Amino acid sequence: MKRKGTGPDGLVIVDKPEGITSHGVVARMRRLAGTRKVGHAGTLDPMATGVLVIGVERATRLLGHLMLTAKTYEATIRLGQTTITDDREGEVSASVSANAVARAAIDEQIAVLTGEIMQVPSKVSAIKIDGKRSYHRVREGEDFELPARPTTVHSFTVHELREAVAEDGTPVLDLDVTVECSSGTYIRALARDLGSALGVGGHLTALRRTRVGPYGVESAHTLEQLEEQLTVLPIGEAAAAAFPRWDVGEEEARLVSTGVRLPAPGLGVDGPIAVFGPGDQFLALVEEQRGQAKPVAVFVG
User: Who contacts 137 (Cβ-Cβ below 8 Å, separation ≥6)?
Assistant: First the structure.
């Protein structure tokens, strides 16, 4: 039974507009849902638009697991200019004509940036260094380096290449691309590294996230639409869409609801499995370990 005054349990798939932070969206959702127990799965910068998965009440406990799923982005990369933030919101720090950059060279370097790679995150990221956000250190003028991190770029595709002239008169190339990647991949860093490898510099001028795991922009709602009607994907439906499903009987449901390990279902998958009991009740997330189903999050009781 829900406690009086709490919001609905579930996910809200938001089509975030440009110019607002992810925390700003969370604040709006707290007001609309009537609860402070709201979080998001994966930050989007103010410049970026697209899919932001919001968890309400018990569904906030799904978010950490959803953050591990693949994401898809549509972006525009400008070759010929470097900025201090690796995107168009930062000051231009270097300009080099991109007139001589060949498509073959672009494709070659994109291939290098595809697959399992080591990536140095942008310094204006939210990564913590000794408990302090990287972007705070940048704003305070600190000189520091971030270590490279492993990440996976599943695909990196160029759809269109356009010649343009930047505001300072530099001939540049704008690339419209789609990137499918693992969580923790920085698209700004891909733009920076592509430009650097080509010898002309690069930065991101547009970014739209079109998918987080199973949740696509086609099922997302704008803030204006949510103001008119708060659309919440029930927690059970959200779990069934995001994770492999395991249906159990009444006795198994009772045990898993108290955190007891069960014999593994043998699905042979890495990561969480959503457990459902009689009446299609979502019970828990478990992981298969050494022949047992270990509960990682219980949602009843």
Answer: 123, 129, 144
Candidates 74, 16, 30; CA nearest to 230 is 30
| Cβ proximity of 121 and 87 under 8 Å | no
Q: Which helix (H) or strand (E) holds 39?
A: strand 38-41
Chain segment 48-73, per-residue pLDDT in tens: 999 999 999 999 999 988 876 799 99
The pLDDT score that the predictor gives to residue 143 is 60
| Mean pLDDT, rounded, of the chain | 91
Lowest-confidence pick of 150-159, 239-248, 265-274: 265-274
Q: Among residues 45, 86, 87, 174, which one is catalytic? A: 45
Rounded CA separation 252/122 (Å): 47
> What is the sign of the dihedral through the CA atoms of 178, 180, 181 and 182?
positive
Active site annotation includes 45: yes
Q: What is the C-alpha to C-alpha distance for residues 188 and 173, in angstroms, rounded to an integer? A: 16
Q: How far apart are CA 221 and CA 110, in angstroms?
A: 33
C-alpha 176/C-alpha 77 separation (Å) is: 7
pLDDT, position 1: 39
Q: What is the pLDDT of residues 78-95, one digit of tens each?
A: 999 999 889 999 899 999
d(CA 42, CA 211): 12
Element spanning 234, H or E = strand 233-234
Sketch out the chain's domains with CATH numbers: 10-68+214-236 (3.30.2350.10), 71-212 (3.30.2350.10), 243-298 (2.30.130.10)
The SS3 of residue 94 is strand
